[in-house]
Amino acid sequence: MFDFDQYLGFLAFLTILTIGFWLMIFLLTFVIPYWVGGSIIEMVKEKMEARKARREA
Predict the structure, then answer these.
(1) What is the pLDDT of residues 17-33, one digit of tens each?
(2) Comparing C-alpha atoms, which of 24, 48, 25, 28 is closest to residue 36?
(3) How confident is the model at residue 16 (pLDDT cuts 50, 70, 90)?
(4) pLDDT at position 2
(5) DSSP 1-57
(6) In the predicted model, is pLDDT for residue 34 greater than 80?
(7) Neighbours of 5 (CB within 10 A)
(8) Cα(57)–Cα(40) distance, integer angstroms
(9) CA atoms of 54 and 28, how far apart (whole Å)
(10) FRET partner for 52 with CA separation of 20 to 30 A, picked from 2, 30, 36, 46?
């Protein structure tokens, strides 16, 4: 059914596809929420500092 070269190509394709899938899952579950959470925390800190500066002035 498959020659050895075709079999190696198919395995390489599956390996690349699997690596891409797990990289996408890792990004969606860990990196993006970390980035969004950090952005929200920074935004809240900036607003609190602006309020504090307005009260002191």
Answers:
(1) 999 999 999 999 999 99
(2) 28
(3) very high
(4) 78
(5) ---HHHHHHHHHHHHHHHHHHHHHHHIIIIIHHHHHHHHHHHHHHHHHHHHHHHHH-
(6) yes
(7) 8
(8) 26
(9) 38
(10) 36
